[in-house]
Predict the 3D structure of the following.
Amino acid sequence: MKKYMLAASLLMGLIMFAGCSGDSGNKNIKIGIIESMEHPAMDDSRKGFLKALEDNGYKDGENLTIDYQNAQSVLSNLKTIAQKFITDKADMIFAQGTQASQAVATDTKEIPIVISAVTDPESAGLVKSNAKPETNVTGASDLTPIKEQFDLIKKILPDAKKAAIFFCSQEDNSYIQSEMAKEAASALGIETEEVTFSSSTDMAQVVQSMIGKYDFIYTPTDNTVANAMPTLTSITLEAKIPVFAGEEGMTRSGGLATASISYYELGYKAGEMAAAILKGESKPQDMPIAYAPNPTIFLNKIAADKLGITFPADLESSATLITE
């Protein structure tokens, strides 16, 4: 009898070890996805994240349960969502955007958090260092290629002298990008001014106040602007003011041109990192923040026609054209 009891104990020990090894096995993994608002870049990143998980053996509805929560631009909702994931004992949280990432990182130091669409995780207080997080947070930065974007602007508007850098004052990542934009513009002899708004409800009024003051408007990868881009460009296109945005989705919503990273690829990279954590191959503490590959140039022909702007032929021939 003792031999049978010993054998049973060993078997139980092996089963418990297998269940804690990091491999999903038969366990249903629960991942909470949190975003502060919806817009195309976030959608693309989320799709890339889920595809990477699927390619690594984690499929929603099979061995994976996804709890997707969006704060719908109400920032107080972020804490409620974060607490929900903690109460539900999520195995991992995928946080998109600086505000959403900060909300969950503040409330849990135990659940692994993989982020995307955060410009500088270190400056946002999410990690001790982008090179070595040493926290329960890692993921992919959407640091936009601002120098390349201003080089592109100069090619399209060679005589431009003054620009507004337009963003929401509530988004820390936009201040970081604004400083980078000022530096890039100054190197090209372009004077810049920061123009900010506090919420989407007062954005249109601020946009109206910029008419006639600037040769163009530059807006970084600001989530609030991205969400309200059609409102912005409905005003600027009529006023014949070009808007250069930080990424593809914003450009498709009326921006004139951009050098944009792929948010799908960014999300896919974050998904690969998440899979490595779930498999027990790595820990967030030791995983450096990842960055997107080389940008693609997008030119919006619809916006150009409305603005009466012609793109240089060599630029147009090598870019991705937005025609619908």
User: Anything to note?
Assistant: Residues 2-19 form the longest helix (18 residues).
